[in-house]
Amino acid sequence: EGNYSAIRILRADLWWYCRGKILRSRLPTCAIVQLAITFALAFERNPRVPEKRTKKSLGTSFDERIYIDSIGVPGGVPDEHKARDQVAAGFESFLFWWVTINKNVDWINYIYYNQQRFINYTRDAVKGIAEQLDATSRMAWENRLAPDMILAEKGGVCVMIGDTCCTFIPNNTAPDGTITKALQGLTTLAEEWAENSGTDNSLTGWLESWFGKWKGMVVSFSTSLIAVAGVLTAVRCCIIPCVRGLIQ
């Protein structure tokens, strides 16, 4: 006999039983019991206490050279990481604005497509990590259970290791775990992006079947011709008659 409530080192397969259907590893004075059959642990989560959030630095993963100017335009992007040249785009938008519009649409589609690819790759990576961690955690628990049974007479593995003994593996791959929630969020986001993407344009499909990879150039050239024809028509039908009327 002894004061078992003073035990501070967790014992293998020994739990505190007070009442109900809950086993605890450390408690005040209770009865110490040993289970004779296999069992599965269901850990209780402590209620989260809301904490006051404080601003922290973003760390070194963000470039300090990037800034937002007074009119809300980002700047400071290094030249080697720029997708387009601002000077050339400025002259182009002034002289050939109709071409710039088509190029901007293509760049938006390109960025949107890469975002979908990034989300899909991240989702697959997190899914693979979750599957591996789940199996690894189960194997670690099984491998830990065997030496605890072998060393049960000496008090288990933790008696030999001491206070640094690991007795808990965070189950983040559980249905309510952080990895599972992140994977569900990525899956939902990927489905949302897929639903909001895609265009159904028979004219574009016809042009692609005829011109293939030259479709973009043909569309830009055709748009330019239509714009020039519209300007010439406006000059011929509106501006020239008005000037003649003013002269007469």
UniProtKB/TrEMBL annotation:
Subcellular location: Host cell membrane; Host endomembrane system; Virion membrane
Membrane topology category: Single-pass type I membrane protein; Peripheral membrane protein
InterPro entries xrefs: TLV/ENV_coat_polyprotein
Major localization class: host cell
Transmembrane feature ranges: 216-235
Keywords assigned: Disulfide bond, Glycoprotein, Host cell membrane, Host membrane, Host-virus interaction, Lipoprotein, Membrane, Palmitate, Transmembrane, Transmembrane helix
Gene3D superfamilies cross-referenced by the UniProt entry: 1.10.287.210
PANTHER family, sorted: ERVV2 PROTEIN, VIRAL ENVELOPE PROTEIN
Annotated protein name in UniProt: ERVV1 protein
Source species of the chain: Nyctiprogne leucopyga
